[in-house]
Amino acid sequence: MKPAFEILKAFSHLFFPQICYACGSSLLGTDQLLCLRCLHELPYTRFEKYHHNPVERIFWGRLAIHEAASLFYFTKDSIVERLLHQLKYKGRREVGTYCGRLMGAALQKVERFKDIDGIIPLPLFRRKERERGFNQAKLLCDGLKEMINKPIMDDVILRIEATETQTHKNRIERWQNMEHRFEVEHPELLKGKHILLVDDVITTGATLESCAQELLRVENTRLSILTLAYSSSRNV
Known about the structure:
This protein is of the alpha/beta class. The chain has helices at about 1-15, 35-40, 55-60, 80-90, 95-110, 125-130, 135-150, 170-180, 205-215, and strands spanning about 70-75, 120, 155-160, 180-185, 195-200, 220-230.
C-alpha cells in the first residue's frame, strides 16, 4: 500500500510540482515548503537563548515582560519576507503553521519558556479577520502548539477597534495608533498564569505593548512575548 501511495505522490508531482515558497525552485518532496538552500539560509536570531536580547530591550522601562524573543531577522527581499508575503497576501495558511512549528522547535531547546501555561495570538479586529479569512498569529500558534503542547487561548482578549496601518509611522505615532485598542474578555482564565503572546513581526513593539498592557492588568499574570521575526526597520 505504501509503495503505491509513494508512486501516486511522485506521479502527481509531475503535473502539480511543489515549489519552494521562498525562491520558487522545485522541491523533491510534496510535504516541504522550503528547499534545502533556503532552509540553510534562514536568518535565525538565537534570541530565545539569551536574556537582554534586542526584543527584550524594546520593552525595558515599558512593560514587565518575563521573557521575549524572535526566531528570525526580518529584512527586505529576504526569505522571511517572502514567506510572510505568501501567508498574509497569498492566503497560504500552511506557511503559518509551518513557521509556528519552527518557533516551537526553537523553544523546545531552551529552558526560558518551559513554564508557559497558554498561548495567545495577537488578535485582529474581527472585521479585518473576516475579510482576510484568518489571523496569521493564530496560525503561528497552531504550529507552535504542535511542538510545545500548550493550549491556545484565542478568546480571552479582543481588538475592539480597527487601526490604521503602522507602516511609515514613527514609534510615538505607532503607540498613539494602538492605545486602548484591546480589551480582556475573560480575566478569570488568565489569573496566575504565565502567558505567551505571539505575533508575526515586531518592530517598535507598539501593538504588542498595547495588548500586553491589558493582559498584565489581570491579577498575578506573567507575560512573555514571541514573534516569528524581528525588524529594526519601521517600514514593515
